[in-house]
Design brief:
binds calcium ion; alpha/beta; globular; binds SN-glycerol-3-phosphate
């Protein structure tokens, strides 16, 4: 059995007992503490259809501790996990609902979206995979004892989505101290949205997507914990500059870079001193960082 798979299996077997011991035995935690966290972007999205439960399962199978997702809202107010603001690329919506162009997520009910196939576009082997609700997604992540980098996607399209998201997180047990301090980060390209999250629920960790100007960091540090830039904009000096500031919870601002899929780039970005690497290929990045 692959070492990461063995680690994940061990974690699963520990079950509820894992809550009582110091840490699950994900490979990321067994490795040197200096190694950046590896975050499966939209789940293990090179191996399974992005943002589906299968992509979460695949990440767990690979021994990945963190998964990233994208959250949007249906016409009737259900939060669902999908990246694009329309259903065309990752579902069969055009076939099932031919008269509903432009197939915006916000124009479909949760029941309608639940009918769609979100797996066949990726590989026929995944036919029947669904667009998960956030509630379903949280259950699956929790079942694997994983951690979640939750992106509020295009909040400008969904007024009040911050409150809606926090409500689902609270209902599903994701806003207790254990989750708030160690298992959950809410990120967005919108600093305003993250400020809203912080004001509504100050204990939640937040991350800004983008290369925030250093001059903004004193202000951002009042409501943010992370600055998460595209790796193409990164260099050691920027990471050091971000680390020099304190975030909303009294620790240095952290940096997670996206989206890194090659071993060479993973090693280079790690050498900058980042805290996390967001990748579609978590197995490739973990192997690169572990020198395999
Ligand atoms: O987590 C970083 C990344 O997800 C941001 O870009 O478009 O893939 O959501 P995008
Ligand atoms: Ca995302």
């Amino acid at each position: 059995m692959h070492p990461r798979a063995a680690a994940a299996t061990t974690t699963a077997l520990l079950g509820a007992a894992a809550l009582l011991v110091p840490a699950p035995h994900h490979r990321a935690e067994a490795a040197a503490v200096e190694r950046p966290a590896v975050i499966a972007h939209r789940g293990a999205s090179a191996n399974a259809p992005e943002n589906t439960l299968a992509a979460v399962d695949k990440a767990a199978e690979l021994g990945v501790e963190w998964v990233e997702n994208d959250v949007q809202r249906t016409k009737d107010g259900e939060l669902v996990v999908i990246h694009d603001d329309n259903l065309q690329r990752t579902t069969d919506a055009e076939t099932v609902f031919p008269d509903r162009a432009p197939w915006k997520v916000k124009d479909f009910t949760a029941a309608e979206i639940a009918r769609l196939d979100a797996g066949s576009w990726f590989d026929p082997a995944y036919a029947g995979a669904r667009v998960p609700t956030l509630k379903e997604y949280l259950h699956r992540v929790e079942s694997h004892h994983q951690k979640l980098l939750l992106e509020v996607k295009k909040p400008e399209l969904y007024p009040g989505i911050e409150q809606d998201t926090l409500k689902v997180l609270a209902n599903e047990g994701w806003l207790d101290q254990r989750h708030e301090t160690d298992r959950l980060v809410v990120q967005s390209f919108s600093a305003d949205s993250l400020r809203t999250v912080h004001e509504l629920r100050p204990g939640v960790r937040t991350g800004f997507l983008g290369t925030a100007p250093v001059a903004m960091l004193p202000r951002y540090g009042r409501f943010l914990d992370q600055i998460n830039p595209p790796y193409t904009s990164l260099h050691t000096g920027y990471v050091l500059a971000v680390h020099a500031f304190t975030g909303a919870h009294g620790q240095r601002l952290r940096v997670s870079a996206w989206t890194v899929d090659s071993p060479d780039i993973a090693r280079t970005v790690a050498s900058y001193g980042v805290d996390g690497i967001i990748t579609n290929r978590p197995d490739v990045v973990m192997d690169a960082l572990d020198g395999e």
